[in-house]
Specification:
This protein is an all-alpha fold and 171 residues long. The protein contains seven helices and no strands. The longest helix is centred in the N-terminal third of the chain and has 23 residues, at 22-44.
Length: 171
């Protein structure tokens, strides 16, 4: 479970009674897409003929530009997660990262799911001795990609949800 039991109003759009502005929602989606894109190769190396995770990342990016609907992005996320179910290890986590990124169009709080699964993918791809270090480096890389406008929000979300995100944000 990567979503909190109680939804944080900072991740609910103003149209739905929260405080999240569309511009920040789009930034969250793009950051999540960057996190998923960074590890996508771990899926594609195992499943070179399956474009569902790549398509999910493309569609969430397109959603931020108004080129596709939220429903199209969310559906692509579901397809990416379906691609993950057949796999294990790094490839599975990378596909889940893509699925979570695409789901940000529907529920902004999925941004942390994309990042957490990306860290898990990197950890799974590393040797046992290098796993924790690789995960910390991925977490730090993700933080470097954060746009200033959402940086404090995401870092606070990582702090609040680290326990339900497999403690991958201890970096």
């Amino acid at each position: 479970m990567i979503l909190p039991k109680e939804r944080d109003p900072r991740f609910i759009t103003v149209r739905r009674g929260g405080t999240l502005q569309d511009s920040d929602h789009h930034l969250l989606a793009l950051w999540a897409a960057d996190c998923a894109q960074h590890v996508l190769h771990l899926f594609e190396e195992m499943q070179p003929n399956d474009d569902r995770p790549r398509r999910a990342i493309e569609l969430v990016r397109a959603w931020t530009c108004g080129e596709v609907t939220m429903s199209q992005s969310r559906a692509a996320g579901g397809h990416a997660m379906a691609a993950a179910r057949e796999l294990s290890g790094a490839a599975r986590h990378a596909a889940y990262a893509a699925g979570q990124a695409a789901a940000v169009a529907h529920v902004a709080a999925h941004e942390l799911g994309a990042a957490a699964y990306a860290v898990k993918a990197v950890r799974a791809a590393a040797t046992k001795d290098e796993s924790k270090c690789a995960g910390r480096q991925e977490c730090q890389w993700q933080r470097e990609q954060l746009p200033e406008a959402i940086r404090d929000l995401v870092l606070d979300d990582q702090r609040l949800r680290n326990d339900i995100c497999w403690s991958v944000f201890d970096c």
